[in-house]
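Continuing the batch. This is chain 6 of the set; chains 1 through 5 are on the previous pages. Same settings as before, nothing changed between runs. Recording input and output for traceability.
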Amino acid sequence: MLTVSFGVASLVPTASQRVEHLMQMADQALYVAKAQVATWPPDRHRLA
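Output for chain 6:
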């Protein structure tokens, strides 16, 4: 089995925001995606 997780984020930049903020948001989204894959499917025993 192969799974792929992506972290995607977008924002409208302001003068006070840095690119690092966008990267941090994407990184957090990646961890959320990985956590969702780790619990999918909800009932693995039924698929066996």
